[in-house]
Amino acid sequence: MKKIILIICTPLFLFSQEKLENTRIFNNQFLWHTNLLFESDGLNKGFLNAMLYGGLITDSLKDNWINLGDDNNVFYSEISNGFSFKNTKYNIGVSAYDRNLINASFSDDLMKLGFYGNFNYQNETLDFSNTNIRIDRFQQYKIDYTFNFNSASINVGASFLAGNHHATLIVNNGTLFTDTNGIRLDVAYDVHAFITDTSSLDPFARNGNGLALDLSTDFIVKNHKINLYLQDAGFIMWNRKSTTLITDSNFSSSGAVITDIMSFNDSLLDEYNSVEELKTKNKSVKTYIPANFGFSAMRPSTSEYFETISVGLNMKWQPYYDNSPLSFSKIGQGIKESNYEPLYWVSAVSKLKYFDALPTLSFGGYSNDFNIGLALSKVKKHRFTIGTQHLEDLLARDKAKSMSVYFNFLLQF
Predict the structure, then answer these.
(1) pLDDT tens, residue by residue, 288-301
(2) How many domains does the chain contain in total?
(3) What is the DSSP letter of 122?
């Protein structure tokens, strides 16, 4: 992929694994994260290259792209950079990240409308409901503390979120019916849109502030080390210079009858136009960042090839709106609207002569597919790790649906 998105956030399962594997204690640990990630459940590298760089797009290519994934096409990417510092003597840590996220989902019918228009779909209803696009840029500053017990530990953390820019487009319901030869169009839509102040192009402009919470625990069950976690459960309140648009309307158009072209003017169209005027206003809006929650379990391996085996489950929570108090219903809403399927994974650590190898097999996530990961880690007093979560897609060329390359560098002193 020629143009992908840089991230600096180590995958959850590798991050958890690092914590569980680290048996030597140092007073101070400094960890830098860098990660490149693009994930989709349908759109592939060939589609993105054509959209970004142009070229001949044939009808057969359009049909292939429309049929690539499920009825809804999910696209996710993140650009993040950051570091964390941990003092193990006092069990306190701090971290700072610069994060950029795009989370989108749109229907096949919207692709049909964009590629072909509505001429090929006469006497059909195109449904582009549940289309959503969310774009965020913010900095995250975190402090955490670990409480240690005999065979368990609890870590709590709090983050301040400095919001730079945000844009949202949510189409809750949207349909277009085209009659024969286009003699009548029936359109229905329920759209929510929001964008922060665009008067400044400064990437670090302060347009909002927010908070996020972390809570995790590690404990031993026989020879298994269990980790339960909730990470980045938070929100950003954007300032009153932000622009919102909410519109819900139905209209039918049968064209306009012009009896005298010489007397034509805009007022003649008004009686044929039943579209409500789009109204915007400036106000403060609350949005959520993607939260992770789940568990992992690690145990020593009985195989001569692997030192440890780990399994886990990760889920995400990111509702569209702050439209109801926290409840079981709200939790379910946030899981559904995150565009993320439960991610099941298994990984291992193999001690080789010059480095450690960390193979991973996972299913789910934004790609909702099987993915093979592999990381190589050079371990002495310090540690350098480089890897990918999507090894199989590196070999798929234009058919690749996902791609990631990440590295982290751990200094211990």
Answers:
(1) 999 999 999 999 99
(2) 1
(3) B
